[in-house]
Amino acid sequence: MNTLTQNQNRAADQPKSTDRSFVVPAVNISSNPDEYLVEAEMPGVARDGLEVLVEGNQLTIIGRRQPEAQTGEFLYCESCPDDYRRIFEIASDIDTTKITAQMDQGVLKLRLPKVERVKPRRIPIAG
Amino acid sequence: MKLIPRRRRDELSNWSPLNHLGRLREEVNRLFESPFSEWSRGSEFFGEWTPSVDLLDTKDKLTVKAELPGLKKEDIDISLDGNNLTIAGERRHEDERKEGEVYRSEMYYGRFQRTIALPHAVDSNKITANYKNGLLTVDLPKTEEAKRKQIEVKVS
Question: Nearest-CA neighbor of B142 among B113, B110, B119, B108?
Answer without folding.
Answer: B119
